[in-house]
Each structure stands twice: as C-alpha cells, then as structure tokens.
From TrEMBL:
Protein name: non-specific serine/threonine protein kinase
EC number: 2.7.11.1
Keywords of the record: Disulfide bond, Receptor, Signal
One GO-annotated biological process of the protein: recognition of pollen
Subcellular location: Membrane
Length: 471
C-alpha cells in the first residue's frame, strides 16, 4: 500500500510475539491524513476524513480509506490498526463509494442511525435501524442516549445508553471477512441467510462474483459460489465442532463450529486462546479462494484446479494423495469414450460403469476410505448403520451410502446419506470431514464389502468419541 500520509503517533500494545512498538506509521492507500481519536462516535460529533475511531486496545480502527490508485473512490471501513500491512475487514458503503471525500461525514443521527453522507447531503449508506430513543439535545453530551463504539473484537456497535441494548452492529452485516466472535447465519425462521461476498478486485471493495456460505438446502456443507454456480464444496460436517491441525507458528489450533441460538443456526470460527486470536480472520477473496489468515495466509482453498467443484466429472474423484493431484475413476468405472481420446488429468465428462447394475440383493458395496463424500445426497434421519445399509441395498436407485454417528444437539445424532444417479465432486486425501463411502457394485451375494465398511466405520466412531471425550 502507498503511504500518502502519516498517522498521528499512537501508543498501542500488541502481542510481543508479533511485534513490539510504541508508535508506528500506518501504511494506507489513501491521501487522507488520519488522526487518532477515542473509540466511540456520539450524536453531534461526526467522523470526517482525517479522523479515526480506535478500539480501546488499539487493534482496530474505523475511518475513511481509498484502496484505488489513483485515488478516485473512498469508503468508510474497519481495518487492523497495528499490523504493517493495511488490511480491511469490513466496509460500510461497498456499493456507493465517495467521490469527493473532503465533504463527506459519517455521523450518528438523532434517529439513532449511523449515516454516511456526501457534501450535498445525499445519504450514501445508513444502518436503517429502528429508532428506539429520542435525543433531546445532540450537542449536550449529558443528554446523549446512544453511542457507536468500536469494540476490541472489530465490531462496530450502536447501543442505547439507557439499557445498554444493541440497536445495530457490524458483526450482523459481514462483507468479505469473518472475524472471531462473528456469526455467519446458516438458518433462521425469518431472517435471510448470510454469505461472505468477495471484493470485485484487489482495489475495488464493491460486491464481487464470489460468495461463501452454507448449502441453502441443508446445514451439512458449505460452498464457495461463482455467481450461482458452485465453485468449491467443503466436506460434509462430521460434527458440530471441527478442530484444525495444530499450528506451531501460532501455538494453537483453529476451530470451526456450528451453533444454535433460539431459532437461528450459525457458524463461527476462531482460536481457543493465544495472543494472535484477535488477528485470525476468514476471507473470501476476489479470486474465489477461502483463506484463513493472521498476518499471513495459514490455509486456503481450493488449493489447485482438482479441488474445484465437479472438476473430475461424474463417478470420478480427485486423488490428493498423488504428488500431482489427478482425477481417477471409481473401481468398476471407466472414462467415457470422449475422455479416452484426451491425455488430460481431468475428466470433464467423468466416468461410466463398465457393467450396469442389476436390481437384486446380490449387489455388494465397495468401501472408499478417506473420501469427501459426493454432493446431492439424500439425508435420511434417525437410522442405525444396518438400517442405512439396508435402505440403500433395497433401493434399486441407490448407488452409494455413508453413515455417521455424532452428537451435537443441532444436527441429527445419526446421519444416513444416500445417493441416486451419478456421484459428483469427490476427493480423496487428508482433509477435515473425510469419511468412508460405500459404492454399490455387482456381486454374487457377497457381503464382505459391507462388513469391512461397518468395521471401519465403527473404528472411526470410536476415534471421534475418544477425541470428543478428551476435549
């Protein structure tokens, strides 16, 4: 980022393991001179270019910025205040940039709304919160009934001082970034579902083509979409809590969780403890990647083309265990005729069975361990393992099944997933959510595949139960 103005020296305490400093020059892509202020906004004292609101601990700042070069468009946003790289985590006026910053104001109005206006009085952005209180004298601080405060978590909170009730908060309106403590709504009886929406490009915060959120048809998987087309699909949730690998550079792990609060189901993520927990963030980028970062990227997906949704076509899977990930047909399948004529590592048209299944009880199942199960499954509630297997075996249209036994209080304790038709978007490798899937194949009364699958699943259930018991 270019440095077109030095910030006022500010004394900020940051985790010693990251850096130690008393004052710093904040590198901004902006020609606006930023001066430090306190952590709140009150009626009658608007925020203008040249001023910022700083959280109590100095971690976050709110103010005017411009990511473009040359400077054409300006925005009000929240960014990390005390790391060298200028990193925005929330933008108010994404779709309505400021073109003349010298006359713009960000204010808390008498109707208890945060409003961004240009020099002509045109409202570019507002919270549209319902007015709960009246402010008799906006210039008399003793009579102030509302305030907007930038919390140490990066949350801009508009609250009533009479009862401390939250009127509006930026955490309820995510842009492209999910911070620890934020909840991304997956299901609600009345409110719309939420998605993270990428920037248009690296210098344009307006809503871009990629988004991240839950499958609108169920809560068992998450997607990255390119417009309305799936771009990347996560593994199906194995549990209400996914613990990532231990990261030596953080001395901690990163978790992702499904939570339930009244009539709302939401996902969250973060670190249990540690000096860098407030710097962890999840972001959907303008390139269509989901990144988990601190001061540097810790995890990103998709890693390569083979991880893109449906890259290997139907009845094929991406083998991440190879030195160079490649598409492979399931056993008993072969590339379609059109694919045979190409020497490509992807099967755009996928694979087909060498011999068609016949509808009889002699068909057996072949186990595929460590797989991301396919998309477009049928979720059968409250089935035992044997009942799940019988459900698929007795259904001539069923081509595969998978089973889990979990305990979350949010998702059904037993999960039987069935597939009919072609199997799409499978991967083999070491990733969260990997499990066994049993694919139906021709056989003469052999139940060996089912027995093997059941034994492996029981071992996996015991492993997961042991992990949960030790937490």
């Amino acid at each position: 980022m270019e440095d077109n103005g030095n910030s006022t020296a500010c004394c900020v305490k940051l985790a010693d393991a990251l850096m130690s400093m008393a004052c710093m020059d904040l590198q901004l892509q902006s020609s606006i001179h930023l001066c430090a202020s306190d952590n709140r906004l009150v009626p009658g004292k608007p925020l203008s270019p040249g001023s910022t609101i700083i959280s109590d601990d100095g971690t976050f700042a709110l103010g005017f910025f411009s990511p473009s070069n040359p400077k054409k468009h300006y925005y009000v946003g929240i960014w990390y205040n005390n790391i060298p790289k200028f990193t925005v985590v929330w933008v108010a006026n994404r779709a309505a940039p400021i073109t003349v910053p010298s006359s713009a104001v960000f204010t808390l109005t008498r109707s208890s709304n945060l409003t961004l206006s240009d020099g002509n009085g045109h409202v570019l952005w507002t919270t549209m919160a319902k007015s709960r209180i009246s402010i008799s004298s906006p210039r008399n601080t003793k009579n102030i009934s509302t305030e907007a405060m930038l919390d140490n978590t990066g949350n801009l909170i508009l609250r009533s001082l009479a009862d401390n009730a939250i009127i509006w908060q930026s955490f309820d309106h995510p842009t492209d970034t999910l911070l620890p403590g934020m909840n991304l709504r997956l299901s609600h009886n009345t409110h719309p579902l939420q998605r993270l929406i990428s920037w248009k490009d690296i210098r344009d915060p307006s809503p871009g083509p990629f988004s991240y959120g839950a499958d609108p048809n169920n809560l068992l998987q998450r997607f990255i979409w390119h417009g309305s087309v799936p771009h990347r699909r996560s593994p199906v949730w194995n549990n209400y809590l996914l613990i990532g690998k231990y990261m030596n550079n953080l001395n901690s792990t990163i978790y992702m969780a499904i939570n339930h609060d009244s009539d709302e189901v939401y996902m969250s993520f973060g670190m249990p403890t540690g000096p860098f927990s407030v710097l962890i963030r999840m972001k959907i980028t303008y390139l269509g990647k989901s990144n988990i970062s601190a001061w540097t990227t810790l995890y990103s997906e998709p890693v390569h083309d083979c991880n893109i949704y449906g890259y290997c076509g139907p009845n094929s899977y991406c083998d991440n265990t190879d030195a160079v990930p490649a598409c492979k047909c399931l056993d008993g399948f072969e590339p379609r005729e059109e694919e045979r004529r190409t020497n490509n590592r992807s099967f755009l048209l996928g694979c087909r069975r060498r011999k068609a299944l016949r509808c009889h009880h002699g068909n057996s199942f072949l186990t595929y361990p460590s797989m991301k199960v396919p998309d477009n499954f049928i979720y059968i509630h409250k089935r035992s393992f044997d009942e799940c297997m019988v459900e698929c075996r007795s259904n001539c249209s069923c081509v595969a099944y998978a089973y889990s036994n979990i305990s979350s209080g949010i998702i059904d304790d037993t999960r039987c997933l069935l597939w009919t038709g072609e199997l799409i978007d499978m991967e083999k490798g070491t990733m969260d959510g990997d499990k066994e899937i049993a694919v139906k194949r021709l056989g003469k009364g052999s139940a060996q595949g089912v027995v093997e699958f059941k034994n492996e699943m029981l071992q996996e259930i015991q492993r997961l139960t042991g992990q949960q018991g030790s937490r």
